[in-house]
Amino acid sequence: MIGGIAIATIYWYVLLVCAALAVVLVIFGDVFDFDGPVDPMLIIPWLTFTSLLGYLGETLTEQSSFFIFIVSGIIATVLVFLLNFYILMPMKHAESTLSASEKSLEGQIATVVTPIPIQGMGEIQLKSVTGSISRPACFYAPQETEIKRGEKVLIIEVRDRVCYVTPYESMLKI
Known about the structure:
The protein folds into two domains: 7-103; 106-167, CATH 2.40.50.140. The chain has four helices and five strands, in the order H-H-H-H-E-E-E-E-E. It has helices at residues 7-28, 40-60, 65-93, 102-105, and strands at residues 109-114, 122-128, 131-139, 152-159, 162-167. A five-stranded mixed barrel has the order 1-2-3-5-4. Helix 1 (7-28) packs antiparallel against helix 2 and helix 2 (40-60) packs antiparallel against helix 3 (65-93). The termini are far apart.
């Protein structure tokens, strides 16, 4: 007992408070950007797991409260590490769209949809597994002739959603 309150009761109240904070962090977690040394997205689950395991340990076993706290803290640390490593970190680095990123377009071959004049812009189309995308395009280096509709181009660089292309000449003659 701590201050006349059973330890299992303390674990229970900490579990309820942490569950409420977890709901708040899920809803508003993207609004707040925590760049400090202590990330609430890891502290709240650690407290939740520790209090859950501590509550279960206090009600189901006859071990000492100190031993139950240490074991539940160790198990919670492992669970939070796995949560962070396999769920939170990949979600932070995941792209929110299925379309290709601009850097992944570089080096790909596209088809001209709208002719690309010598001093101007045209339009190209790329086909992929997720569908096809169209982007504005202009020449990467000065050219002598325009590229007509249906011809192939090689994307050299992508800047500000504009593809800089050069005529594509296949090495294989079929």
